Each structure stands twice: as C-alpha cells, then as structure tokens.
Amino acid sequence: MTEDRSGEQPPRSVLVTGASTFLGGYLVTRLAANPDIERVVAVDSRVPTKVLMRRMGRADFLRLDIRRPAIAKAIASYDVDTLVHAAPSILDSVEHTAAIKELNVVGTMQVCAACQRSPSVRRLVLRSSAMVYGAGPSDPGFFSEGTPARKEPRRGYGRDLIDMEGYARGLARRRQDIDVSILRFQSILGPRIRTRMSAYLSLPVVPTAFGRQPRFQFLHEEDALAALEHATLNRRPGTFNIAGDGVVTLSQSVYRAGHLKLPVPAGLISPLTGVLQGGGLPGIRSENTSYLSYGRVLDTTRMRTELGFVPRYSSLETLDDFIERGGSEPVISSDTWRALEHQAVAAATRLQ
C-alpha cells in the first residue's frame, strides 16, 4: 500500500452515498476495483440498476435513507474512515421539491453529524456545484473559491448546496482531525450522464436569451468521476472549483450540435424549454434562467495547484464528445454549416 504525498495512508474503508446515481454508482465501481482499499460500502435509498450493481463488484450495498440515524450505524459497522457524499448528484435529474430539499439538506446534516460522532472517520468528500455562485450581469470574469456570489441563490438546488457546504465546513471546524474536501463541479456533459444541460443542448431548437451571449465551461463525466476518485484517495482538504479548460459560448454549443437558436425574452426560456422537451428530464427552471442568460466561468487554479487534479477533456472537447456520442441528432449538418460559413465570408469579402 502506497502513501500519498502528504504522508497519509490511502483510505481503508470508504462509504459512498448516492450509489444509484451515475456519479455515485460509477465511483463505487472504481473504488471497488482498487486493491488498496479494503472495503467499499455503497449507500442509497434506491436500488441501483442491475447493470450498475454488477459493476460494483465486491462493494457492499446498503439500502437506507441518509436522513435517518441508520447512516451512523453503517459508518460504525464498517469502521468507515472516508465518506464520499455524492447523493447531491440527484440535482441533475430530479425536479426540486420540498422532499428533495429535505433529502439534500437534512441528509447532509445527518451525514455530517454521524461523521462528527464517529471515531473512525478521517475524511469527508462533498460533491457540490458551481450553482452556489449564482449568475448575474455584474459577476466577475472568473469565480474563484473565495469570491462571494454577487447574487447568491435564495432557493432551489443552489440554496440547498450553500446549506450543505455550511454543514461540511462546520464539521471541519468541530473535528479538525477530519479533512473536508468540497468539489464544486461545473455543468457536467457526457454520452452517458443525463443532466438538465444535456437535455437543454439536445433540443433541436434551443431557446436563448435575446441579446445575450453567455460563456460556459463544461466538465466531462469521466473527469467528474476522476475528480471524485482523486479527492477520495488523496488528502486534499479545502474547496475546489472543478471544470475543463477553456470557455465555450452558448451560440458555439448550439451550432456545433447542428441545432437552431430561438432568441426569446429571458423569462420565456423556462416555459419554452419544458414544452419543447415534452417529458423526460424536467425543463429548465426559472432559477436556471440567469445562468443561461449570463453564463458562469470558474477559476480552476486551486484545482491544479492544491488539489493536484488536471481534467483530461477541455470544455470544447467535452462538448464535442457529448455531441458525437450522446445521441443528439443535428437539425443542420456540419457540411451545411460550413457551406453557410463560406458564403458569409465570400459576401463579406465582396462588400469590402
């Protein structure tokens, strides 16, 4: 068994919440394949798919509600030293309701309380999101981990995540022997994971805010998994922005997918998206409208220098892989776009 560069042993017994979700389930799969980890425990109130259960291999699955004291019993029974709270990934595919808020906020409170009481826990990794920064016209060019949002979320998943991070930081203050790592993921895209952003960009006609050109960063699903695994295996306490290199505008995203923009007043993005999706994932909510109007870009310096993690995919490469393998059909082919581009360049030349 090797040691990380900080001199601390890799985890011996790891418990992962949210095991039925994409990130939680596939993280369990990766950890279970690591021979240096003695025990992996997968926890969720829902049973993972049969395919995912098979991939989990030697991991033990416990069906329990993290809002209940049973989470503390599980930590004690398996002598857990590292807990990865990946359950908030539910925000990618489920509408925000009072029940979901309770699962997120009360569940995280119970997890942190259980860790505080446990003599064995030495590390907590929380999957968070860049949604905590909010989005608005007066935002900085880049959000660093210490930059407060100009208009922080007051409801929805953004508000939940602010409260959840608060519980995690409170644990770090009360138990200074427990290393707490908070990973703030940018919008995740990939051929397998289903998120609001992937559903939005898959629309043949994409409602956009009239007169706005928001800038985005994307995080590939494989890099999201790799970042969680890296934080689990290495002692890197702190809060870290996680995103691929580079910036992609909304127009670039829509056009590279071969889809069409439909500029509308910002207030119509949410209802129009819901109508155009016609089921499946929930439509873009009003709380997401500011993000789709103004975008959000993160400073990832700490990700590289302190966390020691470098994503494999850039934002543009993530977008292109999602387009190529994600099953989204173009309305206008790439050949047509190139022909239109050549025509536009030729017309501009003639006018000079």
UniProtKB/TrEMBL annotation:
SUPFAM superfamilies: NAD(P)-binding Rossmann-fold domains (SSF51735). InterPro entries: Epimerase_deHydtase (IPR001509), Lipid_A_modif_metabolic_enz (IPR050177), NAD(P)-bd_dom_sf (IPR036291). It comes from the Bacteria. Residues 14-243 form the NAD-dependent epimerase/dehydratase domain. PANTHER family: BIFUNCTIONAL POLYMYXIN RESISTANCE PROTEIN ARNA, NAD-DEPENDENT EPIMERASE_DEHYDRATASE. This is Putative nucleotide-sugar epimerase.
